[in-house]
Amino acid sequence: MNKKVIYLLAVLFIAGFTSCKNCVDCTNCNSSFDETEICKESFETRISFNARVSSYESSTGCSCD
What whole-number distance in Å separates Cα of residue 15 and Cα of residue 63? Predict the structure, then answer.
């Protein structure tokens, strides 16, 4: 295989692991919760997971990363 192809595959492989977070920690909340963790395994789709994180951030003032 060409070196460029090998480097491209390596970059895609690494990017795949770093872009797929299974859980996010929500901190600095304006509510009674100090910190919460939301995990995508609790949701059927990635869209519903992202929607829940966005909703939680807007309703509680948390920052989820």
Answer: 23
Cα torsion through 10, 13, 14, 15, rounded to 10: 120
pLDDT, tens digit, 9 for 90 and up, residues 18-32: 455 689 998 888 766
Residue type, position 65, single letter = D
HSE value, Cβ hemisphere, 13 Å, CA-based, for 60: 19
* Rounded Cα–Cα distance for residues 58 and 65 (Å): 14
CB 39 within 8 A of CB 9: no
pTM listed for this prediction: 0.62
